[in-house]
Amino acid sequence: MIEVNIPISDRMLGIVLMIVAAVLVVVALLIGYAAVERWSGVNATRSALRAQAQGNGSRARSEASRAAALLPDEPAALLPSIDLESPSAAAKLLNLRNRVSDRQRAIVDVALQLNHALTMQPIEDVAGANGQLIASVAASSKGQLASLPVAEHGDAPYRTVLECAYAKLLQVAWSARDAGRVRTAAGALQLLSPKHPQASELMFVITALDPDIGDKELNDSAQPLPPERRAILAKLLAELAPAHAAALADIAMGATPGKADPKAALAATIDRAIKGAPTASALDALCFQALDQDQPELARKVVTKMEGAQRDRALGFINDFPGTLGDAFLAAAGEQALLPRPSRLRAGDGFVAFHLSNEHGLLPKLFPEITLNDQPVGAAQLRHWGSLIVVLTDLPRPYTITVRVNDHVLFSQGIAR
Question: What is the pLDDT of residues 30-76, one digit of tens each?
């Protein structure tokens, strides 16, 4: 064997070692930078989830965007930053699906099908409870009142899918005036997200739809809401919760249930309104409520916040006082806001129920005349709480209900089988 000795000077050896050391330092820096970046992405993901759990939506979105920028190939980091209700989300999810491992692809597939369900696109089958919930979301997005499945043991759905399914159920059940499902969905959302951005509204809905709750508990549940939002929600809930209609009417006026002084409550409401920036429709409502309570001076206080044609129109009604709004309901040609109108009829076994008021929540001065198949309904068949009117009947379906005020037909509708 021939040995070849290549002499290497100390200087050359030092240079080689320096180059190797420099390469190792660069590699170490790259590994360290990648580790720091990954740690920052994981930390941002956790911060986004923590902010979401705390009900801090703006911070959750900010942290989710930062996590997505740091870890663009990680579903756990990228998915919270995607708005699944946006049609453009599908392209982002498909792009992510092509970059992740097979093990992570199932998570992206669930998010993609949930996006399709929310945007009313055709959905594909997804295994287990997630797939069943996504199918119910798809039905709810089309306005269908679907029942949510019960997950089998060991097949828990993703929290986002479950929360989305209950949110859609609440939306459709509210439109259908299905009080039972509204309460179920609101309770589930409150349990899933105690710090939900609308947690106060959810708690008010849950409490109002409990037939056994007392007026004090109902009033306490309404107090965390801002006054204007509290009044709107109380009026809407009165139709879903007839057992609490009177208490909800007091709450809507800002009064304690059972202890309301309507005139004092309205005066306080008007004082708050004229110190703020109320909308034109809110001013109309307050003006007509004041006249309905025979308080023209309060109505004039409201007029000071009005302008132009709205002001002239309101002054015309005030100057015609003491004519009642019951007369104005029928005499105001073109004043559609003053005309009484019914809510959607709800017919059940042995009853028909509806609300009757005008656009501003005012009631006719005279109780309406109600007939079933042209036969007058007697007082014993009527139940009346504020704007809510319930007619008890044992007539077989189909039959026709007609409602008149001062011989003016408000509506006539057939009740089908």
Answer: 777 666 666 666 666 677 667 666 666 666 666 666 766 666 667 66
- Helices and strands (H, E) in the chain, number of each type: 17, 9
Per-residue exposure over 299-333, b if at least 16 CB sit within 10 Å of its own CB, e if not: bebbbebbeeebbeebeebbeeeeeebbebbbeee
Alpha carbons 205 and 398: distance in angstroms, whole number: 34
CB atoms within 10 A of CB 3: 4
Q: What is the pLDDT of residues 226-281, one digit of tens each?
A: 888 888 888 888 878 877 887 888 888 777 777 767 777 778 778 877 887 788 87
Are 394 and 350 in contact, with CB atoms under 8 Å apart? yes
Closest by alpha carbon to 266, among 301, 290, 231, 238? 290
Helix ranges, 253-397 (H): 262-275, 280-292, 296-303, 308-319, 325-331
Q: How many CB atoms lie within 10 A of CB 189?
A: 22
Which pTM value belongs to this model?
Answer: 0.56
72 by Cβ neighbours in 10 Å (0-12 / 13-18 / 19+) ranks as middle
Please, how many CA atoms are within 13 Å of residue 134, restricted to the half-sphere of its CB? 25
Write the Ramachandran bin of 261: left for phi over 0, alpha for psi from -120 to 50, otherwise beta.
beta
The answer to whether residues 398 and 329 touch, using CB atoms and an 8 Å cutoff, is: no
Amino acid (one-letter) located at 160: T
Task: Tell me the C-alpha distance between 67 and 46, whole Å.
Answer: 9
Tokens of 258: 């059972």
pLDDT band at 205 (very low <50, low <70, confident <90, very high): very high
Answer yes or no: are the C-beta atoms of 241 and 209 closer than 8 Å: yes
